[in-house]
């Protein structure tokens, strides 16, 4: 896949019946990718990906990410293979831990999330690449003479969706890329990509390590209005996940913790404008185009825009296509 791609994230609040239509519109407007999120309990990831793929002919469709414990890896491999055969070369599947609260609601919390993720992804790759029946007894997943009746016709890239240093390196050892969460500044993108490449080298693997990066986005001729459009979404995520390596990459974890102690409202009111500028892509069309190129330069081969606020996605898509895409230097 070529570098410097631009995608759109269709949030989990998108009605399932609109996914095909919106994906087709993204393709018509000139975007390279559509990404979907299997957030529990909104729309189903594989169903949504099938709708997006069926409604389009060129655009790649990313699924970032499904929980490794929500389905048995053999069933996940079967779903991936079916979509790859139906829409060759256009599916970008991602696998992660899953949001802990949602996983706990299903009683699926593993004692060792990293072990569960490793077993799942290793099993999925084995089934996608080998025609021989696969048998193994893992700590979390068992395979007994499992083989896909309809294996994929070509190679399918597998992505992780992890944040910490160990996870980022693991992504390079067992996957082809890492889907980076919203709140990732450019400094984190470079750090995560370097760790992934280090993991690939340690595992003796060759190829390019991909880091598609989700970024909250708002475009407006009024820069302050664009900032306001992403501010509450940033506060929501900071309140939900607190200090992480994402925010640690720009040295704000202590302040994030202090503000988060006061809850969402404290984050909205106390968040410096600098955070908005570094954790999101917002501003005038010229400013947004420059920020996208900064993410590409930092190593994000795909920048996946998440238009904000969510109820303005349609108009934001049109504005980005008309005013931002022509300003990009690719």
From TrEMBL:
Give the transmembrane ranges: none
Superkingdom, natural source: Bacteria
Q: Name one GO molecular function term.
A: oxidoreductase activity, acting on paired donors, with incorporation or reduction of molecular oxygen
**Which Enzyme Commission numbers does its entry carry?**
1.5.99.11
Keyword Oxidoreductase present in the record's keywords: the answer is: yes
Gene3D superfamilies hit by this protein? Luciferase-like domain
Pfam families annotated for this entry? Bac_luciferase
Keyword Ubl conjugation attributed: no
What region holds the Luciferase-like domain?
A: 12-301
Keywords of the record: Oxidoreductase
UniProt cross-references to PANTHER family, sorted A to Z: 5,10-METHYLENETETRAHYDROMETHANOPTERIN REDUCTASE (PTHR43244:SF1), PTHR43244
Name of the protein described by the UniProt record: 5,10-methylenetetrahydromethanopterin reductase
Q: Which organism is it from?
A: Pseudonocardia dioxanivorans (strain ATCC 55486 / DSM 44775 / JCM 13855 / CB1190)
